[in-house]
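#struct-help
A.M.: can someone run this one for me? Single chain, 141 residues.
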Amino acid sequence: MILPDYTLFIQIANFLILMFLLNRVLYRPVRRILGKRKEEMNAFQSLIEDFQKRAAGHAKKIEQDMAEARKEGLKDKEALKSQGLDEEKQMLRKASSTAADKLSQARKELDGKVKGVRQSLEKEMALFSKELAEKVLGRSL
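D.P.: on it. Structure tokens below:
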């Protein structure tokens, strides 16, 4: 069986000294570096979140501006459309009044020509009826 002697206490002391030295030289600096890294990562994460919030706000504003621009464009389109319809109505009114004027002029001219033709036909009809009566009767009237 193994009996503990004074070397066991030397080994325990050796182990404790090694742990103290490793803690001072290796573990503390590594933990300090890891702590700084964690703080920097948290700072960067908060910056990222801030930038993401600002980007979302900008995106929302852009969408609102686009919606407003669409509304204004639609409003302008409707205004131009109604203006075009008004101009079309005015043009149609002018065209119909011009057509009505031309039609009334044409009717007046036609009525004048019809009257002239009637008068000439009535004169000729009187002559034709007289000639026909003379031919039927065989003598002059």
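A.M.: thanks! The radius of gyration is 58 Å.
D.P.: also worth noting: The helical segments are 6-137.
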